[in-house]
């Protein structure tokens, strides 16, 4: 993109030469993004990136402008998860940069590709700490919180700088990358043709990682020796977009599988080999576990202890693109370092035609446990209590999603998360987005926005009232862009429960409660969206179905019994307990 005709200069070395076309940092950055097929930017404008965003939009990219950088960042990271291309977030310097960092660190923790591009102040002033506007050594601060961090100082390096950021974000284990763009860089001018030649299109940004043949043979030997094998599918398997191979591997092997929350739908949750509803049994009793794009972190009790049936020990086969993930918590008997698609192809080839499925007493026991649990839960889901309990409300939402398999589901909260994860079945890959590895609250609105923008499908965001509070202002963004998002706030007046009291009897409410019967639905109306208050499951089902079909911004305030939840949902055991009783 050349600057206007006035932005030309005579060649200083030859007075008779034609004037040269010029370009600058703004245009080079936009051209570099376009060259690498980046189509959408999630951002909050301000000094020094306002013009950059205006020009980016003028150049035909989609720019979504948020109210707070954290949510622009969450959106970018979710875009990365859904598309396997780095989601781009742009922020202003110091405070905007810091606001976005939470999302950048979260993307890195979740292994999702994202690039946060932040404007920064003048290097000369920052480095001498002379007190610039929004002065901060952003590069140094970002470094420990992301996979890679770079700064571009010269316009001719914009092409290579962005290329490095893209490759770092998506290759190997994906993650968050920080790109520091001093304001002065954007204004730097250079020759147009030289600028164009300096841009880099990243070729094969995420090369396949083929596993070694010995590693495949070793893994198959371990799997063949199993009497009670189990597959665990994680969000890395969902990210890999090797959906057919995942299905083939599960079905050919005949091994029951447990989906981690964001792997739900890789195979439909109603699949006969799904062991989701028999989770405790399969973790405890399995003798060989094949981890596919899932980590043995806190979400799986680090692969050891009572939950895994200790003292009996489990043998692990692990498929992961990151070699350092192996033996992170327990010994991995058969590490398979590679991308999910390449590893599963190799395993399937090695399994051959005469593969022996697991013993029927194992698969039969898993199925019996699962059927019993599903039946027990089904009865609870039918209640029409008002105010609602979690089962009644989520029974209604389960129907809504069941009837719309392409809809995206976003889910956060404590009880709202735990119950929804087990109650709402998913039937297609990458339709569920939640709090991820950190269990971070506030991902809801950013995730919902990215889900709507990247897929074009209707989005249902099921939010605890506390979780919603971290990101609620972004409903203005949802209304402004008229996105097909229906937010359901599970309003139980508080954190975990809405019933805590201040034991001193003084004026302040307990730190755990909110304003009683808050009208979140009216907030939505303030921005021109639909706001509905639903007090029983029938009302909720009707209102959500309508909103999902209309594809209009809607917020439904679902009145939940303040006494229905429990402390920290399913992870109350993580709260430290005081043993000292003070009088
Ligand atoms: P979950 O929380 O669902 O268990 P995790 O985020 O803990 O999932 O684990 C995802 C794992 O997947 C990470 O260890 C990451 O390195 C790995 N991973 C990401 N992409 C790929 C890929 N294409 N192939 C193989 N492994 C991958
Ligand atoms: Mg609550």
Comma- or semicolon-separated keywords:
single chain, 583 residues, alpha/beta, Rossmann fold, 3 domains, six-stranded parallel beta sheet, 22 helices, 16% strand, binds adenosine-5'-diphosphate, binds magnesium ion
Overview of the molecule:
By secondary structure, the protein is an alpha/beta fold. The chain has a 6-stranded parallel sheet, with helices on both faces. The protein has a 6-stranded parallel sheet with strand order 16-15-17-18-20-19, with helices on both faces. A 5-stranded parallel sheet has the order 11-10-12-13-14, with helices on both faces. Helix 4 (94-110) links the parallel strand 5 (87-91) and strand 6 (114-120). It binds adenosine-5'-diphosphate and magnesium ion. Adenosine-5'-diphosphate is lined by residues 110-111, 173-174, 234-236, 239-240, 260, 262-263, 293-295, 297, 299, 319-322, 325, 339-340, 437.
Task: Please state the overall shape, judged from the principal axes of the Cα atoms.
Answer: globular
The overall pLDDT, averaged over residues, is: 96
Strand order of the largest sheet: 4-3-5-6-8-7
Structural class: alpha/beta
CATH superfamily of the largest domain: Thiamin diphosphate (ThDP)-binding fold, Pyr/PP domains
Radius of gyration: 26 Å
Number of helices: 22
CATH architecture descriptor of the largest domain: 3-Layer(aba) Sandwich
Helix content: 25-40%
Please identify the top-level CATH class of the largest domain.
Answer: Alpha Beta
- Main pleated-sheet profile: 6 strands, parallel
Distance between the termini: 73 Å
The counted number of beta strands is: 20
According to CATH, the fold-level topology of the largest domain is: Rossmann fold
Query: How many domains make up the coordinates?
Result: 3
Bound molecules: adenosine-5'-diphosphate, magnesium ion
Strand content: 15-25%
Uncertain ranges: none
């Amino acid at each position: 993109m050349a600057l206007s005709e006035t932005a030309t200069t005579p060649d200083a070395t030859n007075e008779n030469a034609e004037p040269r076309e010029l370009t600058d940092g703004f245009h080079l950055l936009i051209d570099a993004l376009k060259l690498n097929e980046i189509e959408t930017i999630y951002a909050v404008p301000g000094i020094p990136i306002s013009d950059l965003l205006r020009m980016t939009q003028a150049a035909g990219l989609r720019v979504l402008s948020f109210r707070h950088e954290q949510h622009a960042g969450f959106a970018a990271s979710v875009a990365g998860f859904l598309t396997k291309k780095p989601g781009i977030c742009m922020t202003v310097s110091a405070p905007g940069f810091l606001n976005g960092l939470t999302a950048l660190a979260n993307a890195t923790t979740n292994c999702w590709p994202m690039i946060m591009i932040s404007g920064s102040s003048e290097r000369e002033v920052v480095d001498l700490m002379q007190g610039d506007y929004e002065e901060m050594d952003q590069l140094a601060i970002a470094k420990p919180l992301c996979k890679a961090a770079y700064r571009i100082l010269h316009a001719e390096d914009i092409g290579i700088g962005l290329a490095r950021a893209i490759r770092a974000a998506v290759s190997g284990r994906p993650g968050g990358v920080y790109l520091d763009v001093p304001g002065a860089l954007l204004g730097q001018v250079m020759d147009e043709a030289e600028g164009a030649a300096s841009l880099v299109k990243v070729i094969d940004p995420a090369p396949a990682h083929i596993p070694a043949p010995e590693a495949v043979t070793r893994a198959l030997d371990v799997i063949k020796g199993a009497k009670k094998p189990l597959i665990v599918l994680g969000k890395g398997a969902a990210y890999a977009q090797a959906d057919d191979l995942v299905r083939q591997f599960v079905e050919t092997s005949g091994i029951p599988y447990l989906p981690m929350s964001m792997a739900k739908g890789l195979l439909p949750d109603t699949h006969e080999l799904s062991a989701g509803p028999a989770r405790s049994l399969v973790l405890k009793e399995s003798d060989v576990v094949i981890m596919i794009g899932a980590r043995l972190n806190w979400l799986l009790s680090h692969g050891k202890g009572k939950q895994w049936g200790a003292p009996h020990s489990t043998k692990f086969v692990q498929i992961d693109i990151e070699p350092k993930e192996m033996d992170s918590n327990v010994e991995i008997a058969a590490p398979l370092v590679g991308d999910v698609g390449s590893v599963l192809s190799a395993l399937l080839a090695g399994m051959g035609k005469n593969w022996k499925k697991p013993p029927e007493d194992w698969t039969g026991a898993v199925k019996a446990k699962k059927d019993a649990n599903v039946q027990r839960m089904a009865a609870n889901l039918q209640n029409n209590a008002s105010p609602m309990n979690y089962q009644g409300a989520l029974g209604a939402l389960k129907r809504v999603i069941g009837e719309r398999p392409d809809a995206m589901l976003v889910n956060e909260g404590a009880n709202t998360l735990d119950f929804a994860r087990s109650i709402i079945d998913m039937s297609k890959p990458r339709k569920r987005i939640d709090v991820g590895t950190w269990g971070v609250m506030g991902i809801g609105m950013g995730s919902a926005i990215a889900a709507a923008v990247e897929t074009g499908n209707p989005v249902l965001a099921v939010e605890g009232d506390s979780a919603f509070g971290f990101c609620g202002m972004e409903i203005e963004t949802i209304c402004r862009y008229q996105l097909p998002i229906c937010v359901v706030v599970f309003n139980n007046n508080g954190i975990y429960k809405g019933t805590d009291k201040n034991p001193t009897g003084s004026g302040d409410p307990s730190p755990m409660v909110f304003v009683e019967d808050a009208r979140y639905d009216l907030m939505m109306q303030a921005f021109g969206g639909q706001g509905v208050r639903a007090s029983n499951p029938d009302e909720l089902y009707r209102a959500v179905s309508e909103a999902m079909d209309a594809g209009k911004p809607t917020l439904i305030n679902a009145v939940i019994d303040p006494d229905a939840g429990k402390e920290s949902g399913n992870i109350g055991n993580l709260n430290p307990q005081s043993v000292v009783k003070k009088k």
